[in-house]
# Entry
Amino acid sequence: MARLSLSDTDKQARDWFHRTTTDLGCKVHTDTMGNQFAVRPGLNNDAPPTYAGSHLDTQPSGGRYDGILGVTAAVEMLKVLNDNWVETAYPVGVVNWTNEEGARFPISMVASGVWSGDISLERAHSLKSVIPADDTATMKIELERIGYLGDVACSWEASPMAAHFELHIEQGPILEAENRRVGVVQGVQSYKWFSITVRGRDAHTGATSFQHRADALLTAAKMILASHKIASKHAALASTGILTLKPGSTNTVPGFVQFSLDIRAPQDKTVEAVESECKAAFSALAAGEDVLDINAGCAPSSRTCAVEWRTDFVSPATHFHDDCIACVQAAGADLCGTGDVSGKDIGAWGKLMTSGAGHDSVYANKRCPASMIFVPCRDGVSHNPAEYSSPEACADGANVLLGAVVRYDRL
Amino acid sequence: MARLSLSDTDKQARDWFHRTTTDLGCKVHTDTMGNQFAVRPGLNNDAPPTYAGSHLDTQPSGGRYDGILGVTAAVEMLKVLNDNWVETAYPVGVVNWTNEEGARFPISMVASGVWSGDISLERAHSLKSVIPADDTATMKIELERIGYLGDVACSWEASPMAAHFELHIEQGPILEAENRRVGVVQGVQSYKWFSITVRGRDAHTGATSFQHRADALLTAAKMILASHKIASKHAALASTGILTLKPGSTNTVPGFVQFSLDIRAPQDKTVEAVESECKAAFSALAAGEDVLDINAGCAPSSRTCAVEWRTDFVSPATHFHDDCIACVQAAGADLCGTGDVSGKDIGAWGKLMTSGAGHDSVYANKRCPASMIFVPCRDGVSHNPAEYSSPEACADGANVLLGAVVRYDRL
Ligand SMILES: NC(=O)NCCC(=O)O
Ligand SMILES: NC(=O)NCCC(=O)O
# Structure
């Protein structure tokens, strides 16, 4: 799947969502971030709906499950409720959040972040695409272009939720390795995104000795290695997914490099520690000093690089709501027929877990109770066309999603 | 200057060259690589012309002297010969070589390489642009587009030369540091260009442990550092000027990286040694093994990357022709008024030197006697908009060029 947020193919998926949920009897509205909300009325419509949802955008070369499973299973939930003439106590909704991936516009979960009030509409609307061929596009321009700049304010007040449930593939190897059918997600690890700029000096590769160079790419390479070593020490993660340089010629030492840095760990304080150690290490490396023995055996240089950090995105560790976790656990136990259905204990069918990836449920959880359901995926592979969850795993997830929403509705 | 080879602005510079040399009384022809040859008749026109020349293309963000000085000084030479009613014994020519930089089409000196018979016309014509916005353009398409696909065969037989002299800025710091006016260039160091491809696996940055990653960018960063350490050990140079990756998203571990590697040293055998040590080191790093202590402190991974090398360009060490070197030295001594004008010794005004950069004189030297003249440039900076040589230095170079050509003509 290559369905970058607000692209022409994303418009097609949105059109499908609008048409399908309308046909299923929902009232559908779109907010100023392009989030789509489909609401199926309940017996009493004076209170907000209980939502199921996720996102339909993907990575540049992503899979067919990440996000998509959560939305399609939620649409399936609407069909099952209709087919069985179920009248819920309160309304039930399905939401498709915009640009969850942060792959085209580089803040993940940006549209649920605006909805929760954590990210300003202005900042989100003016976010620029990081796709090189397309780097003048902003979220607002693209929302207008594809006709999905809605007129409802993007906020938890204008589109309130009683609760938010999200089915997702695990994107990691644990459920598969432990042979468990369902993950009951208690929270999401902490993460921060940065853009690092390294400025050196363009120079001739053949006529400039190492001593006279300020090589921004060699320095960036050392920084990427340093971030990996520092994260390894803290049992955290540090990753670089984007790197651009100038001028980009075989025989010119690059004078300019920019790269992304994504730091994650279960606890906020670990992310902070990795960040501050990276800051110190990058400054030392830019100045030509050694850290972590990285410079051992490198020719010294009399010139230095400059390094700048920009923080693009902060997502502190999230703890989901006990009521929602209990609904997921009870629905899982009910489906899988083992364990303590009361929700206090969990059987061999499932696992209480923390998500390594961020999800819109992180921001939803700030304004309403939320939790998530994970299902196993092959080899733990995600953000990759090889991503795969079996039809049985998808069905398990959809059943638990339905069970959790219906349980919460009764609460 | 940003005048990439065969761009619209390169066409403007070519038009200027054609018009100006025609107006100065030359016969001008263009060959199938777009090389432009302007010939001023001599008393006897039965033998090939003695040429002065260089190139008018630049790096993506280059300077105003690299190559350009050599062509403009050669045009000035034509004017001086005309203004002084000089009749040379044989014809004198000026040549503008195509794509010397190798910045847009990634073989430097490619058009003089076709002229000398070292590079096939087919290979050169089908070379693809490495500029991301423009990566479907080939040399042939662009030659046709700007109207410079000439009809004269690109060869030393169709456009023969008695000798080739090239004035160039030094692109290094030595002449300035030693306060010398003119470099008498005896040869050019050896170099080789490679494209390295590293294949890993796209994976989620938040949900994939270091153990489960095959991180193509982290591996490439280690390789770039390793190449630098290996070159440092051999007092050679290794440089990466281009690096591209896929898919290019903050939260996806890149599964694909390609980067350029430019290895240089005075002797061919040193380049070979650096190449073979890099090959061993890159293979080890791709396989997750340690070399040069680079992996110390990195979390181990159970997955490996694959690495592939492609050799793009080989330019062995070049030794220019004694007759041409002697003409340059005599012209320099004559201008600067010191030293042994006979050419056997050199005074404080000049320095016998080897070029770190490649030049079209490398290929010219394979089919006719050649040498070069260097003039100092500020801080040794080149391939950078800050490139600068004083008007006095440029005039020195132009005078030595004229003196060398006239001396060779008399030989
Ligand atoms: N689930 C998912 O891939 N979310 C993208 C945000 C992140 O980088 O964790
Ligand atoms: N003189 C010059 O910059 N030539 C480009 C070829 C090289 O990379 O050395």
